[in-house]
Amino acid sequence: MKTVRSLIIISLVCVLALAVGVPAWGKDTIKIGVIGPMQFVQGKGHWNGAVMAMEEINAAGGVNVGGKKMKIELVQADSNEFLNVTDATNAMELLMTRHRVDFVVGGFRTEAVLAMQDIAMEYEKIFFGAGAAHPELCLRVAQDYDTYKYFFRAAPFNSNFLVRTSFLHLQFVAGILKSQLDLPNIKVAIVAEKAMWADPMVTASEGVIPKFGMEVAGVWRPSPVATDVTAELSAIQRSGAHVIFTIFSSSVGIPFARQAGELKIPAVQVGINVEAQKDGFWEATQGQGNYIFTLNTYARGVEQTELTLPFVNKYVERFGETPTYTADTYSAIRYSLVPAIENAGTLDSDKLVEVIRDQVVKTPTGTIKYMKDEQGRYLHELTWGPGYLLGLGVQWQDGKMAGVWPNKWKAAPEAPEITYKGIVDYKIPPWVVEAYKK
Amino acid sequence: MIFDIVITSLIKGSTYAMLAIGFSLIFGVARIVNIAHTAFYMVAAYCIFYTTTQLGFNPILAIFVAVILVSLLGLITFKLLIAPIREHEAAVLIATIALAIALQEVMMILFTGDYRSVPPLVPGFATIMGVKVFYQQLLTFVSVLVVLGLMYLFLQYTRLGLAIRATAQDREVANLMGMNESQVAMLAMGISVGLAGVTGAVLAPLSIVEPHMWNHPLAMMLAVVVLGGLGSIKGSLYAAFILGTAEALVVFMIPAGAYLKGAVALSIMVFVLLVRPAGLFGVQFEEER
Fold this sequence. Notes:
The complex is a heterodimer of chains A (438) and B (289). Chain A folds into 2 domains: 209 residues, Response regulator (Rossmann fold); 168 residues, Rossmann fold (3-Layer(aba) Sandwich). By secondary structure, chain A is α/β, with parallel strands linked by helices. In chain A, helix 2 runs parallel beside helix 13. Chain A is elongated. In chain B, strands 1-2 form a two-stranded antiparallel sheet. In chain B, helix 2 runs parallel beside helix 4 and helix 9 packs across helix 10. The model of chain B has no long low-confidence stretch (mean pLDDT 87). Chains A and B meet through strand 8, helix 9 and helix 10 of A and helix 1, strand 2 and helix 10 of B. Chain A: This is ABC transporter substrate-binding protein. Chain A: Keywords: Signal.
């Protein structure tokens, strides 16, 4: 009896050890964790993009891993990172320990992604960040490569490039105001939510705008969650600003656009307004967000590469909305991760890092090539610029998000003009025309 | 700039006053610190959003439905959650915090975290002394005056109003005089939450409808009622306009510090409390005699 009991215990221990310690044994799926704030648009974008990639890859027979076809399986993890960074780290821990995923895509808020990044690195899992823009995420890679080499930025390009692109948009719009309204001296009101990521952008804006031949009319820093900005708008109107340079990633972008539209403030808005990148913006502003210009990644009908429209059209058909940049989990899986696995013939993270960091791939938003820093160290940072990723400038025009930039844009005086297919002309709001037309 | 500050102060002040009046009423009458007050305001905003956009209700009908539903929810809450623990003020405080979070999570499940909006009852704006003011903001200002007027008439000239005033002055004596103190408290709760519903109806078009929309107004409402003196409707009104003025001054005098407007308003509250611990018009309760 004693022997039988011992045998049963030994068998149970063996089964347990096999189940816990050798998860890849007999494995025929690749598990990818998709982490993001799933109750919000950003998280839904993460999930939808990943689902589309999974469906396409599995429908084509799966991923060829050293001669063996493996299907992709997604695991959803709600990071709840808008409300609680601890929830985000717990969700990442669960992906690592309970679900034992092979790779992770997603993340949105820099504060949360920094913490999630540490966990993924500890478990040596490749993590494609598809939301946070802070350069620190990739500086860590260069500074401590052995620890952070498993992190790659998937979207968007970092905040230094975001602000550079926004300045191009500001110059573009100011040029149109100057020529069409004959305004010799453009005054710009800088309105940035009070958030860490926006602070260096405000400093940069104050320094750069006068160099563009424009005048800074003032700086306003509302709370990121302000719901009433009528006082700020009154003050901006009093300042005589012709352009409002917005730096918003939070909900304040909605009341600011809505109330400015309702009050017919005689100044055009250009810059970053993350809320205006979503289809729901029109409804959320009750249509008062008309003529708002923002940096964006996708717009219906605008083609950045030959892959853009097939992706955007299919996404719209499948999910009923235009993808936002968090849906670039699609590109991360479809164009970065899977080709790397097939090239390397393995799921081994270390071997895949060596492939991904040097591969150049075309995606719906442009060509992805990972940068090195000035000392030649790997950054795993997205390359910005003509031929790589540029982003879009979009403007809300009568309920539609229209692509308006790049429109005959030149990176340098001798460089060729760049205009994406599907780009339309920028429109000045009629009440601004009325206010300034001589 | 002076006109900007004056008009913005009046508009901001009326917004805070709308919220604070209902909160002060239930505290003054029943000593219930209903932290879920602004969560009821959030529920009313969602009711209006749902009935107008999904069911196609006329906005006026939607407001009517929202106020009734939220008032009923308030009565049910009182009966099931607050009444059994009413004598323990700390327990009531914690229970209403839990209720507010529960309501937030329910809305999150039903409507997700997406930002929604409702159309204004009166679209457009007026220009008063060079300052652009939404008609909806003017409606809020008028609503405060109307609500205050109706409250005054109700409290002064109805039997229930008399009972509420008597209970507010001294619960024990009111009980001894044959008034059903518990029932009065429940009705006061219904009226208070109904006012939160009206506030939701008036303010929702000026705000974003989302599950956390109750957080910031809660902080400002508490600041208003504490500054005005807990339980004093008159005090709440004065305090609302003081804090509204403080916010307007910050935005116009320190544009780059506009995000500090809430912090400055709360600092003023703390300063006043240091000088007058009971607030501007603190109500003296029977326990304090």
